[in-house]
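question for whoever is on the cluster today: can someone run the full assembly for these? two chains, 382 residues total. i dont have access anymore since they changed the login thing
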Amino acid sequence: MTRLIEELAKLPGIGGKSAQRLAFHIINMPTENAAALAEAITNAKKSIKLCPVCCSITDRDICSICDDPKRDSGVIMVVEDPRDMAAYERTREYRGRYHVLHGTISPINGIGPDKLKIKELLGRISSDVREIIIATNPNVEGEATAMYLSRLLKPLGVKVTRIASGVPIGGDLEYVDDVTLTKALEYRTEM
Amino acid sequence: MTRLIEELAKLPGIGGKSAQRLAFHIINMPTENAAALAEAITNAKKSIKLCPVCCSITDRDICSICDDPKRDSGVIMVVEDPRDMAAYERTREYRGRYHVLHGTISPINGIGPDKLKIKELLGRISSDVREIIIATNPNVEGEATAMYLSRLLKPLGVKVTRIASGVPIGGDLEYVDDVTLTKALEYRTEM
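^ ran it for u. tokens below:
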């Protein structure tokens, strides 16, 4: 029982008390339900792997986006992790493909370019690829990674773009930080 | 005393209790300090007027920005109110001029284009003006006002731009709303 509570408490957002409540709930479950939960955990870990094309997580040989012939393979959006990819999929606006880096360049944390899926990205560049959209987060590491990738990709003759930083929709200029205001001005477009 | 509390409570962010506390503080002030406060209020209201050029508030004949020969008079940024202008001044990045609309087109609130300082903006368009940057807030009224101004200004042969909407600096794609993500993609720029 103590071990179960300890293991549950390691999950994000679950503290000691929540872990205890979950543990008691599991103890009171019918045996088959508890077995089903345990099996689901083991199987998920066993069957989930990285897509060999875009490096996103999948339980298939090739992920559903890379495998979809209707997605435009001429455009690749580079994201930090699968959650950012999921965020863009929710918008239902983007019809190209993705590439997941699994992190950003961060010398402080000892993460160099070799720890990211950059080799795999370079392997995907061909004459069919018209544009690489770099969609790393607009913070220090994300911008540094974007610059690094841009320098790497542009000599290969591919168009490299960066998603815009600016005032979020529904935002008020008065309450937006100075750097974002400056970026919104820099990224302005002709109407 | 009751009248003083009532008047103070009309100020934004000051409720009944705060008004009472302020009123008691004023009562206990030396007479000359109370007189100075009253005079400052009267004078501010008397001396503050709209700049005849950009329609911002000023206590001079022409506001300090319109009067500054070092500011680029070829670029005019159109904002909703003087607070948005102050926000862009804080960035110290923008070296052009401003035009303050004093609101946005909002049919629901009965605010039509004639209630805004649009006539004054049109009066400023000359061959010296290279660009009008529309910096209304990225919400429904702000976007509608931007579209209206764009249709009005473009036939005059002036370049009209819009500040970018996108992911704010330091923001995380995962937690940004769908419309902002879509705009960040739409406004992407070549690196």
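summary bc i know u wont read the tokens: Chain B has seven helices and seven strands. Residues 69-162 of chain B form a domain with the Dna Topoisomerase Vi A Subunit; Chain: A, domain 2 fold (CATH 3.40.1360.10).
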